[in-house]
Model the fold of this input.
Amino acid sequence: MQTVTLSADEVREAVTMREAINAVRDGFIGLAAGEFEMPTRTVMRDGQFLVMNAHHRASGSAMTKTLSLNFDRTPAIAGTVVWTETRRTDTLIADAGAVTTLRTGAAVGVATDLLAPADAGRLTLIGAGGQAPDQVRAVHAVRPLRELTVVDTDVRRAEALARMLAPELPATRIRTANDPETAVGDAEIVCCATPATSPLFTEEALPARVHVNAIGAFRPTMRELPDGLLADSTVVIDEREAILEESGEILHALKTGALTEASLTELGTALSAAEALPGGRTVFKTVGVAMQDWAVARILADKFLT
Ligand SMILES: NC(=O)c1ccc[n+]([C@@H]2O[C@H](COP(=O)([O-])OP(=O)(O)OC[C@H]3O[C@@H](n4cnc5c(N)ncnc54)[C@H](O)[C@@H]3O)[C@@H](O)[C@H]2O)c1
Done:
């Protein structure tokens, strides 16, 4: 029996964003088809400790992620992803921060590929923290970026991220801003990646045709999106139970009547649907589910376990 342990750097070297997107896409389709056992995650200390599990029935494999979260600390996420199987006795333990940014980016890549106009290439990213680089990489993997605007209330963070990404995006015009309301005005794609507790912009600030991803709010008290946008858009979510338990903006919009539960579509269902979703504004809201971590962990297990 062997335990392989992988650091954040080793995870990043082993898995490309493209591989993560493909694995997470298959995972969402499998989730909608009932291929996973996935209990609602355990949340302790109002979200500062999370425990997440997913079991893939057909392969007899399971992933458990345990992490602590502290936005006053760098990195904000610290913890482990543990992979086990019923067939093999070998196990794998990987850095939870690296797996989380990859799989969260990958979900946004899958949704953006499905929902954003084919010619969209102008991204406004709000929140230049730990999740931000993989949000940009994932969108770029499915919609090569002509322009990127990085927005953060702390302009030094926005500038640092712009400098960091520039060598990876030589053909992209990159600028920084500190006011989300004006920065989304000409966006074709928006990514929200902040711990905000009130909407980052008004619906009037957005163009008529735009795709918005929102990963930030994962507690009922948090919100990045205005009700008006949710009322006016095709809204795709990662998983119904998790969203109804944790997504502050969806819960708020359901309470005010801006949304109904029936108007929410799970990503896996949307990916499997024969007919295309309606055009206009689209939103992908994710709180993050254990299947995504399982999907990235499976890539690692395939590469590192014999
Ligand atoms: N959905 C998921 O699967 C998932 C996965 C991981 C993290 N998250 C969440 O995503 C959010 C971002 O995580 P992170 O690790 O990047 O956090 P972080 O603290 O590293 O970065 C957040 C950034 O947002 C900026 N910011 C805060 N409020 C803002 C505002 N109103 N306008 C503009 N910028 C603002 C901050 O200055 C900071 O630079 C958190 O809420 C985290 O819990 C979600």
Residues 71, 76, 100, 104, 126-132, 151-154, 157, 180, 193-196, 200, 215-216, 218, 286-288 surround nicotinamide-adenine-dinucleotide (CB under 6 Å).
